[in-house]
Amino acid sequence: MFAHRTGWKREPNAYSAALNGARARGQTLIDLTLSNPTRCNFDFDSRAILDSLRNPASLDYDPQPQGLLSARKAVAGYYNCHKLEADQEQISPEQIFLTTSTSEAYSYLFRLLCDPGDELLIPGPSYPLFDFLADIQDVQLRRYALFYDHGWHIDIGDIAKSIHERTRGVLVVNPNNPTGSFLHAEELRQLTALCRDRELTLISDEVFLDYEIEAAAEVSVALCGDCLSFALSGLSKLSCIPQMKLAWMVVNGPEHLRKEAHARLEIIADTYLSVNAPIQYALPQLLKQKQRVQSQLFGRIRANVGFLDAQLESCRTVRRLKVEGGWYATLRVPAKKSDEELAIDLIEQAGVVVHPGHFYDFPQDGYLIVSLITPDSEFQTGILALLQMVE
Ligand SMILES: Cc1ncc(COP(=O)(O)O)c(C=O)c1O
User: What spacing in Å lies between the alpha carbon of 325 and ligand 1's midpoint?
Assistant: First the structure.
C-alpha cells in the first residue's frame, strides 16, 4: 500500500540503540551534541518575541505566494545591511520567497529543477538531512568531496567529473555543517563558471552565514547573478528560534532564467501558501532578535573553543580541525575502531554523547563532532571525560 520512496529502514542503528539503552537505564549523560538553541540556556527577549505575534493585521487573510511584502522587505534589509553587500547590487523583495523552513525551500527547489531520477551534487561531509529531502522528491544525490588541507576546500575537479546528462544542480552549504567551512570567493567563481557553462543551478544553504569563528564569510550566493542561483536561510539559526518556522530563498541569476524560475516557483508556492500570517507580520521584530542572541552564541562558542584548545595542548593524539564558522567542531581522533564504535564506547563508558563522523559522511573513520553551543560547564565536563577516554 505504500510508495517505495517511504520504505526507509527504521530500526535504530547501533549508536541510537546504545543511546536509548543508556537513557532507559537512567545513566547520567553529558550531551555534547546539544544544538537546539532554545534549550542551551540563552537569554531570549521573550516578551518581544511573543508580542510580535499579536499584530491585528493577521486577522485578515491576504494570500501572497511569495510571502507578504512587509516580511520580504525585512529579509531584503538583512542582506542589504550585511557587510558582504558593500558595493554590490541590492537584493530586492521581488527576489525573495518565504517558506516555513529551509527544508521546505529545498523541496520547492527540488520540484522546480528535477524530474524523478535527476541528480544533484552535494558536498560530503555535510548535512545529513539531504538524503531524506531527496528521497521524498525522487531526486538522486551524488557526493562531491571536501578535502582538508589547513582548512576545508571544495574539490572543484571532483564536481566537474561528476556532472552528467541528468545532473541539474550543485548544492553548497556556506558555512558547511559540520565542517564549518565557508564558501571561498575563488570557489564561488569556479562554481558559477561551471554552472553557467553546463546549464546547472547553484543552491547555497546559508543558515549559518552570520556565525564567523576563525574566518570571515567571503561571499553569499544571494548576490550571485552569473548563473541561476538560490540562497537559503531562515530564523532557525539567524535568530535561534527554530520553533517559529520561517525561512526564505533568494533567487538570482541571468534575467531570463530568474524570471522563468520565479514564475514556476510562484505556482508551487501558491499551491501550498504554507507560511502563516502572524509569523510574517512578526518577521521584522524576530529578525531584530538576532543581535541579542547571536552575541550570546559568539561568547559561548569562543569560550568552548578556548577551553577545548587549552585541553588539546597536552594531548598527543586528538586535534581540532579548523572551525571557520558555524556551531560545530570536528575532532580528529585515532581511528583504532569505527567512529560509531568509539561514539558508543563514549556513551557507555564515559557517559558522553558525541556524533560519529559517519553521520555526516566523512570519508574515513577518525572524526567526532561536538556542538559548540553546549552550555559551558557541560561542555567542559564532557570534553575532559572524552579526552581522558580517547587519549
Ligand atoms: C545546514 C542546515 N540547513 C538547514 C537547517 C535547518 O533549517 P530549518 O529549520 O530552516 O529547516 C539546519 C539545521 O540544523 C542545517 O544544519
Answer: 15
Cα angle vertex 380, ends 375, 386, to 5°?
120
Q: Which residue among 102, 110, 232 has the greatest number of ligand 1 atoms within 8 angstroms of its CB, and so is best to mutate?
A: 102
pLDDT given for residue 356 in this prediction: 98
Domain borders along the chain are 11-43+290-390, 46-289
Per DSSP, helices labelled H in 85-184 are 102-113, 130-136, 156-162
Indicate the top mutation candidate among 106, 132, 133, 177 to test ligand 1's pocket, ranked by most ligand atoms within 8 A of CB. 177
Region 106-123: mean pLDDT is: 98
CATH C-level class of 11-43+290-390: alpha beta
pTM: 0.97
Provide the residue count of the chain.
391
For the residues 85-102, what does the mean pLDDT come to? 87
In this structure, CATH architecture of domain 46-289: 3-Layer(aba) Sandwich (3.40)
Residues within a 6 A CB radius of ligand 1: 101-103, 127, 173, 177, 205, 207, 234, 236, 242, 247
The per-residue pLDDT for range 153-175, each reduced to its tens digit, is 999 999 999 999 999 999 999 99
Please give the Cα distance from 84 to 70 (Å, whole number): 23
